[in-house]
C-alpha cells in the first residue's frame, strides 16, 4: 500500500498573502467602475458590472462545495479569477506534487470554508494531483478532527504537511509523521515534526 500524504492548503500550497491583495485590487478597480456608472446614471451598466461580484460574494458566504462545479463559469466572471489562484501557488508546490503523485496517494487536510478551499484547489490547477475522496476540509480548527480522518484512510503510513505549529502539535499525538513547512523562516516547529524549508525537500523522503 502506498503511503498517504495529506497537505494543508493555506501557506503550504497557496500563498494567501499573494491571493488576498490580487482579489482586493480587483474589487477596488470594480468599485471605481461602479462609482463611475452611478455618477453617469448608467444603471444597466451598474447592474451588469455588479452582478458577478455579488454572485461570487454570495457563493463565498453561502455556497456549498458541492455546487461549485456548476457555478464555476459564473464565478470566474467575478473576483474568482483563475489566474489569481494560479499566480498564488508557491513555486515549490507543482514540481513536488508531480514527483510525489507516483510515490504516494495525495490528499488534502485543510481548514476554512469548504466552498472556498475547494475553489482554491480547482482554480489554482492543483486539484488534479489529489484524490477526491481524500480531500478533507473542516472549519474552523481541523486538527481536532484528525482521528476521524485517519479512520477513513486505507493505509497506516500517513504523512501530513502543514505550516502551522499548533496544528502539527495536535497531529503528532496521533502517531503520524508530520512535515512542517517553514514559509516565514522564523516559525517554530514542534519536536517530533520534520522541518522543511521547501516542499521540494519532501522528495528525499519518498
Ligand atoms: Mg496553513
Automatic annotation (TrEMBL):
Q: Which InterPro entries match?
A: HAD-like_sf, HAD_sf
Q: Please identify the protein, giving its name as recorded.
A: FCP1 homology domain-containing protein
* Organism, as annotated: candidate division WWE3 bacterium RBG_19FT_COMBO_53_11
